[in-house]
Amino acid sequence: SLLKAVANILGIKDVSKAPMGMSLGDLGLDSLMSVEVKQTLEREADLVLSATQVRDLTLKAIQELDQGGASPSQEATEAVKPSSAPADSVLPDSNMPQPWLTLPLVPEKSITVLREAGASCVPLFLASPIQGTADPLLQVAQDLDRPVYGLQ
After folding, report:
1. Same domain, yes or no, for 74 and 13?
2. What's the pLDDT at 57?
3. One Pfam family of this protein, by short name (predicted)?
4. For residue 107, what are the domain limits?
């Protein structure tokens, strides 16, 4: 079946345990796998999709194709919906807030106070993670009993 072929390309052994609503890109589809899936869809379902559309496909959409519920041209337009698609869409909701996107790209200050404590304690200086801001370290700093400064 088409679903098993695509799952095999992705390295999914048991399709019944796979998240059917996740896009192939979220399931780990790389560029080589994308070409294989694209060729499989063209050969088996007579469906021509762009690389972006292949990445946005879900296992659910491929299952619907496999069951023959819609013609390939109709399925191509319905399976790959824009991010404003309704909740029953076959794509995951891309309107969900993603916390790392709200962090500033360039910190406003080089050193930020994450926790203030008594002056008699030895201060702890934490270097920021790769994102460049010490904000993710704030929760850790609050659990310490000394002054904590974040280096950004």
Report:
1. yes
2. 92
3. PP-binding
4. 103-151
Same domain for 121 and 67:
no
Number of domains making up the chain: 2
Q: Do 64 and 114 lie in a common domain?
A: no
- Residue 107: inside a domain, yes or no? yes
For residues 38 and 54, the answer to whether their CB atoms sit within 8 Å is: yes
Ranges of beta strands (E only) in the chain are: 111-115, 124-127, 148-151
Report DSSP state, residue 136.
G
Rg of the chain's alpha carbons, rounded to an integer?
A: 23
Q: How far apart (Å, rounded) are the C-alpha atoms in residues 27 and 30?
A: 9
d(CA 141, CA 127): 12
Residue 53 lies in a domain: yes
Confidence category of residue 119, pLDDT binned at 50, 70, 90: confident
What pTM did the predictor assign?
A: 0.46
| 65 close to 37: Cβ distance less than 8 angstroms | no
- Count the Cβ atoms, other than its own, within 10 Å of residue 28: 11
